[in-house]
From TrEMBL:
It comes from the Eukaryota. It comes from Podospora fimiseda. Residues 606-780 form the PCI domain. Keywords: Coiled coil, Cytoplasm, Initiation factor, Protein biosynthesis. This is Eukaryotic translation initiation factor 3 subunit C.
Amino acid sequence: MSRFFRAQGDDSSSESSSDEEELYSTEEEEDQEDQEESSEEEEDEDQDESSSDEDAGPAKKNRSRFLVDQASSESEESDVEGTVKVKSAKDKRHDELEATISLIQNGQKINDWGSIANEFDKLNRQAVKLQDGTKAPKSYIKCITELEDFLNETLAKQKVTPKKMNATNARGLNAVKQKIKKNNKDYQSQIDAFRKDSDAFMESDEEVVPVPKPTKVRFQERFVDEAAEEDEDKDFTQVGKSGKAVPFSPESILKHLRTILESRGKKNTDRAEQIRIMEQLSRVANTPYLQIRVLQSLVSARFDLGAGSGNPMSLEHWKAAEKELAALLKILETQKDHVLLENAEEWDDDEKQPVLGPEDKYLKIAGSVVSYIERLDDELTRSLQSIDPHTSEYIERLTDEGSLYNIIIQGLLYYEAIRKDASLEVPQESLNRIMQRRLEHIYFKPAQVVKILEENAWKQVSDGVNSEITPRAKSSDANQLVNTICNYLFEHSEGIIRARAMLSQVYFLALHDEYYKARDMMLTSHLQESIANFDIATQILYNRTLVQVGLCAFRKGLVYDAQNTLQEICGSGRQKELLAQGVMIQRFNQVSPEQERLEKQRQLPFHMHINLELLECVYLTCSMLLEIPLLAQTGSSPDIKKRVISKTYRRMLEYHERQIFTGPPENTRDHVMQASKALAAGEWKKATDFIHSIKIWELMPGAEDIKTMLAKQIQEEGLRTYLFTYAPFYDTLAIATLSAMFELDSSKVSAVVSKMISHEELAAALDQVTETVIFRKGVELSRLQSLALALSDKASSLIETNERTLEQRTQGSANAFSRKDGRQGGQRGGGARGGRGGARGGGNAQRQAGGTQFTGGALGAAVRG
């Protein structure tokens, strides 16, 4: 209990208070002892000060020790210097170096490679600080030479008598083995001098010319103007992380590139710093070989900046990579004896450059121009995917496609030039890939745009240079250019490239209203049978081509072909996903982040999109022109009602009919649904007005021609719908009456009626003398009879299914069982099926308006009798 809550007469409180008093008494005694000690120390200090004041004279006796003048402080510092020896920073580093060397030597004595590896790294860092110019400390040279000899001895012993080392020792041995050869290479001249005469090397006192100190030290910004940088670099020296000057010379370029190449892909690598170093090296490079090597590494390093992240390559780095790639192609064009090939061997010697031999015609350098072009193209696509297409930034970024197309043309010319020499063995695949990239940029563009793109690209090419595959004179004609590129790829490629070339040509033909050529190529390619085996990008191109062929058929007025072609894409309800123009929101299916990322990568840039609203409008209009006459033809017959051309359209139509009140149309679907309702009621003019009022037609070329074509189609389908609906109520009908009702020529009306009669859609005859349509009357089935026929058909199919199932399960035992009764199962089954065949066949056949076509079977015969 605390002493603040003591109660009188409480034993426990008294005991606790006594304990606390003892505690406080001991604490007070300790405080007094501390005060006495501190007072004694102060007295000693005062005595020292007084003695020093007496020695100094009477003037300083009364002066406070906090007001000592400057002279006294200087004298005190001199006294301290006399007692304590102060070392310079260089001497301290030398001592640290010697201590590390002794630790390495101790590790050699006990064969402790783990500690040797750790101390070796520390030794190299210390030696860099003590390095004077290009000369390292002699003790350091002695240590690394002896360490290398010791390493070689250890490895030799391991080969003769292999001993199992522990994991730490083995790791240390491997680490030193990998590092020491590369490290000693930089000090080879000093190591050779030491090995020649170690005593003389250690005793010699050579005067090393120090490296002149930089007048200024400058830390570069991330991106600096090159012209200003060249002027400034005259007075500045590049300084590395260690603080010493980094020498950039033609002789050291290969070493720097090797270092950068080895650090590629590692963690904590400053790629921006590497790019700045390579920009410095590109200015120092004085031979075509060095320039090519530096430009290769520089372009690759810029691509590495965007690798591994979801963000696209920055605009500044992309433009820099595009300029550097153009410079690389320019060097390869001017220096004919330097060739960049994928199958060339890499040059491993960093001390010297490769030289052409007396028998060598070309200096082969390992590299791939087409890979750089493909990566540059992919980065442009990623950039366009990430930009909002409804902003001016997208338009500005899209202008870079022209410069990229120029590089594609230059790359193609380079490959054509080096393929002329058979000794170079240029892979055909490289030429196919670059031709495919060129085709990918022009197949979806109108001919006028392609012509401008080609003209601007050939302006950047020298007049004496021409292409053998796509000559300069023929490239202005877009149709001929696409045909030439595709024919070349058909002949020299296979697999995906060949399939994409075929689809690209079909797309281009359909875009320019060459429907029959596009349709024939699409059918003869048989891609619809094998497209599921290709990659997703090719499947997307197939879907786009299919849609473009359907739109081309619609512009030609081929309604049935257009609807049949668009049915596969538009009927699925997944147009966005199938055309790679957006990600569909799936209600009950969760998508993983990896799948979502892949879906976004597949999306096409906005300028390659097909207008989905226009596509839906075309599909629904074609479905209306086919479905409304079919609905009038089938009427209320239950067995024919199953025939559906477009389920999507039927579903929309049923939903629209269920609505109690329908207001004026607001969107494309509403216009088409109300036009369908008007067409079914025979109001073809009202249906035409609804279709013409859709504003999306203005986006198609030749909008007025398309509206005229749609008006004629609605007139014809309105005539067919009228005949299907009111045929039972007429005996004869004059063609002139139909012509006046639908404002069609008499010849056109006669043609439509004749076509309906020939296709057995209409039970009638055409009297050409009187120009009338004579309808044939037959016995109409009642609703009960129609339902009885439908039941008979279903029962027949059910019996067949049961018999087939029985035969499969018994495996023929049913026939054997029937033969025991003296009957053949085959005859029984055949007779039964033969008797029902007519009824089933009649049930599946299409019944026509007016009830003139009946089904077979006993019930049908009874009705006829």
